[in-house]
């Protein structure tokens, strides 16, 4: 009996061993299949990522359209950058309205009475507020708004590397370029306007600075027509002068306050929207406005608006937070609505009591022309 049991056990071993081997083989094959699937999925992810990193651009070569794919670098993670105002210590200035803007300036447009003033004499980078001077020069030069201009490589931003919906080779009227430069802060449009001024961009920048001197904007200096350079600087007091003059031009009032607009570029319709959503708000009566942003300048806003039957000019520079400049405008409007008709002399400092103009400032140099130089997005 013992011999029979031993023989049976040995025979079972020979039967089970192939089965176990077969099972092991199947398991190995399944694992191999899973590894191959993971490799295939990884390859697809890499390919998709590479495609996302390619930018499709249309260029005109010898009169023919050519599609070009250009590989772009992945942007570095966003980090908080100090603005020129922060570096100058303006963020330590407190005001009774608790504004998020390091600089604020409000005056009665008719009487020129200063109603609110915070660091208004400090010259800071102004970003795309620059385009308001660009628009004023184009209008005052009476250049043909129906002339068709072409976007060239010279209009591409090589300073901040901002994007644009206008490809190199796009053709558009000067009027439409002016419209989207003022309404949507289109940088290539502003560059093309300056480049197509008599004498080119250098002559245009000279004319911008000459106009600033003519208007008594002594804290102001321009180096380009778009505002992408942090060397475009001005003070809030100076910008209020610019807004007052620009408001006299009907075309600038219209273009800066249109909520949206469709333009034709090389036969293609492009819809643009205003960078300031307040222009579409029924709570506001805005006659002219312009926004701006680069890291060195912070969020900027200039506006002409009617509040309680009074035309006022507002300037907010170096504001912190995406919606902070418009929120500051709202705080200022509510304060102005509470003001009594007769106010004290503008030179007085005080609290935000009704009828009392406010002047607050930090002990900083009158001009701060350089600050953080990290890449920015306009």
Automatic annotation (TrEMBL):
EC number: 3.4.21.-
Keywords: Hydrolase
Name of the protein in its database record: D-alanyl-D-alanine endopeptidase
Source organism of the structure: Massilia orientalis
């Amino acid at each position: 009996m013992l011999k029979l049991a031993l023989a049976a056990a040995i025979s079972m071993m020979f039967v089970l061993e192939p089965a176990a081997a077969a099972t092991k083989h199947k398991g190995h094959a399944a694992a191999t299949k899973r590894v191959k699937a993971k490799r295939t999925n990884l390859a697809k992810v890499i390919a998709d990522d590479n495609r996302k990193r390619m930018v499709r651009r249309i260029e005109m070569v010898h009169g023919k359209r050519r599609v070009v794919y250009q590989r772009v670098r992945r942007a570095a993670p966003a980090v908080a950058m100090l603005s020129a105002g922060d570096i100058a210590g303006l963020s330590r200035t407190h005001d009774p309205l608790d504004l998020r803007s390091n600089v604020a300036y409000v005056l009665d447009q008719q009487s020129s009475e200063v109603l609110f003033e915070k660091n208004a004499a400090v010259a800071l980078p102004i970003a795309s507020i620059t385009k308001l001077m660009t628009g004023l020069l184009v209008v005052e030069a009476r250049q043909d708004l129906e002339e068709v201009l072409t976007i060239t490589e010279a209009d591409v931003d090589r300073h901040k590397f901002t994007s644009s919906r206008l490809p190199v080779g796009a053709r558009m009227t000067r009027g439409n370029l002016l419209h989207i430069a003022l309404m949507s802060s289109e940088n290539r449009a502003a560059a093309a306007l300056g480049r197509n001024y008599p004498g080119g961009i250098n002559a245009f920048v000279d004319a911008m600075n000459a106009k600033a001197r003519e208007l008594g904007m002594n804290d102001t200096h321009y180096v380009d027509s778009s505002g992408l350079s942090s060397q475009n600087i001005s003070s809030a007091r100076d910008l209020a002068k610019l807004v007052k003059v620009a408001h006299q031009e009907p075309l600038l009032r219209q273009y800066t306050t249109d909520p949206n607009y469709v333009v034709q570029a090389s036969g293609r319709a492009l819809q643009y929207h205003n960078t300031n959503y307040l222009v579409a708000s029924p709570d506001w009566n805005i006659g002219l406005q312009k926004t701006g942003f680069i890291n060195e300048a912070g969020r900027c806003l200039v506006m002409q608006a009617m509040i309680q039957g009074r035309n006022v000019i507002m300037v907010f520079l170096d504001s912190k937070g995406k919606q902070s400049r418009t929120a500051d405008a709202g705080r200022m409007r509510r304060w102005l609505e509470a003001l009594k008709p007769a106010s004290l002399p503008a030179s007085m400092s005080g609290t935000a009591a009704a009828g009392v103009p406010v002047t607050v400032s930090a002990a900083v140099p009158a001009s701060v022309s350089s600050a953080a130089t990290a890449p920015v997005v306009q």
